[in-house]
Amino acid sequence: MEVHVSIKHLKLLKFWSMRSCASLKELPAEVSALSSLEILILSFCFFLETLPEGLGDMKALTVLILKNTRVKELPNSVTQLKRLSKLSLKECKLLIELPDLIGKLESLKDLIIAGTRLETIPNSIGDIGNLQTLDATSCTSLSALPESIGRLKKLRWLKLDQTGIQELPDSIGFLEELDTMFMSGGKLKVLPSSFGRLRNLVRLEIPGPVFSNRPENMVNLQNLMVLNLSENGENFNSWYISYLDFENLPSLKSLILDGNYFDQLPLSIGKLSWLEELSICGCEGIHYLPQLPSSLKSLSARLCTQLKAFWDMSNLKHLRKLDLSGCRALLKIYGHQHLESIEEIDLRCCLQLEREFNIMCQKEEEELQWSYISNPNEPIKLIIEFPDPHCGRMPSIGVLVYAMVGPEVIF
After folding, report:
1. Strand runs (DSSP E) across 116-237, as ranges?
2. What dihedral angle (degrees, nearest 10) is formed by the CA atoms of 383, 385, 390, 396?
3. pLDDT higher for 346 or 63?
4. pTM of the model
């Protein structure tokens, strides 16, 4: 497929999409004459390898999407696109470098380089004063960020999942507007001492072990609402979690610790008065759960194979979803009769749970009362799933049922 040179006569063209033109290999030099073009989309042009050197003459261009192309480099003239606000190079797997003077893109707000083979980011990136999003997800060859990153005063989203970055520059602490940061699945080993300055951080996904050397970095994260320290099921020996002081995170609503290996949650977790979601799936070292915040709405402890007891649930009056599936050593749950808002419970493979555990009803004057269902017309779902070949035997749990459908017990 070819683009005819007559394209240059479309002087008023503002939007042009060649998305998924798989046979397109190049654009003619004449496209640089499209002086009114604002949006150019070339995503999924899998055989597109080069861009015309005159690309920088398209002065009105604000959006350039090159996702999933075979572009190896950008023409230097791209730095002349003073109005460009979004540049997407996602999954350009042959791209190995950016223009040294990319900092001249003074209007750029979103730079997406995820899935490229970039090894470095030019130091001039610090000159892009309007940059708000930098996405370098899966840039496995990227080993460092330039110190100039700290000059991006308007940066709000920083995505560095699955990169080769082992440490962050100290200047990261000067990102005053940063509210979301992703660094899971990579090689990050330690946080800089300046990390605690990120007072506007709202969401943080980062390898848990990096906090083991500098737990004091949590002290000033007063606005943090989502903290993900999961280890992707690798069961890292995360002893430090037992000593984290969650009192320093008063705004936290979601805490995800999946795949870590620790024997207990710190008692300070009970003081997270805004916490709504707690996930500790696959934390095989934990033996019991302390009293949790009354604000909790969702608790996932799936495959906590050593968990033996949940000491007190009586305060969890807002809990809607409880997942204890695969907790094969679980013997006792205290206070379950006070779960006034519960909607779904998953007890698959809870082999040791005591026979008298009757989660859904209580006997009063010889009648079974639905004592805490605010709307009796809305069903509660209890998942037991039997027989389950992975459990070894059927769970001995006493329950009241209205109907049994397939492998699930539904109220």
Report:
1. 133-135, 157-159, 180-182, 203-205, 226-228, 236-237
2. 90
3. 63
4. 0.84
- Cβ–Cβ contacts within 10 Å for residue 193, how many? 12
pLDDT per residue as tens digits for the range 342-367 = 989 898 888 887 654 544 433 333 33
* Contact in structure between 271 and 251 (CB atoms under 8 Å): no
What's the CA gap between 299 and 213, in Å, rounded? 28
Beta partners for residue 155, in sequence order: none
Parse the chain into domains and list their residue ranges: 1-95
Location of structure tokens 């010889």: 366
Place of tokens 């979004």: 86
C-alpha 410/C-alpha 395 separation (Å) is 16
Which residue, among 207, 122, 204, 119, has the nearest Cα to 164 in the 3D structure? 119
Annotate 195-205 with b (16+ C-beta within 10 A) or e (fewer).
bbbbebbbebb
CATH superfamily, domain 1-95, is: Ribonuclease Inhibitor (3.80.10.10)
How far apart CA 374 and CA 388 sit, in angstroms, is 32
